[in-house]
Design goal:
The complex is a heterodimer. By secondary structure, chain A is mostly helical. Chain A is built from two helices and no strands. In chain A, helix 1 packs antiparallel against helix 2 (20-45). Chain A is elongated. Chain B is mostly helical. Chain B has one domain. Chain B has helices at residues 21-37, 41-44, 49-68, 81-91, 96-102, 113-141; strands at 3-5, 13-15. In chain B, helix 1 (21-37) packs antiparallel against helix 6 and helix 4 packs across helix 6. Chain B is elongated and about 50 Å long. The chains are: A mainly alpha, B mainly alpha. The A-B interface holds A 3-4, 7-8, 10-11, 14-15, 18-20, 23 and B 8-11, 13, 50-51, 54-55, 58-59, 61-62, 65, 120-121, 124, 128, 131-132, 135, 145.
Chain lengths: 50, 145
Amino acid sequence: MVLFALIISIAFGTLGRRRPVDRVKYALWCFVWFLVVAVAIGWVMYPFSH
Amino acid sequence: MTETNQSTGGEPAVVESSAPTSSREPLALAIGFAGWLLPGLGHALQKMWGRALIVFLAVASLVTIGAGMRGNVFNSGGADAFDKLGFVADLGTGSLYFLAIALEPSGPDVSRADGDYGTRFLATAGVLNLLAALHAYEAARGRKA
């Protein structure tokens, strides 16, 4: 999941922004949100696994 | 024709020019097609080297990891709508679709979680490449990118 988020975030950052600094910021922002949302969805689904 | 501007410190930025969009359309379509066929080629043809490299590496690594995890590479003979959608997503990787098939000589194995994750990696690679090809097409049309 972390590897997946990392690869996609780098691609999003490169495609979505022009300046190198903006690319890094956007990639980091995407990466963090990928992980946060994935863990949150995992916890939301947790009660249904029992 | 497309103009570039390097004043921002990053890669050449495509800015809107006064040339009519319709005159650039065939070239833009060809660039979009090239970007789909080989990930990153659409950007490379416009001298956006950084974007070309990142798109190629991202799509190729997703395909390699997905195939290595023995994810499902869908074919055109899908039984239901999800299989057909999966085929469209996988086909988005262009020529790397055949690389994914070649990397899985023993076929997919989705009985384990690894195979299921691999299927997602492969589908994401295709959709990401379609997004990149669309980005290259828009840049070639002269839209800001």
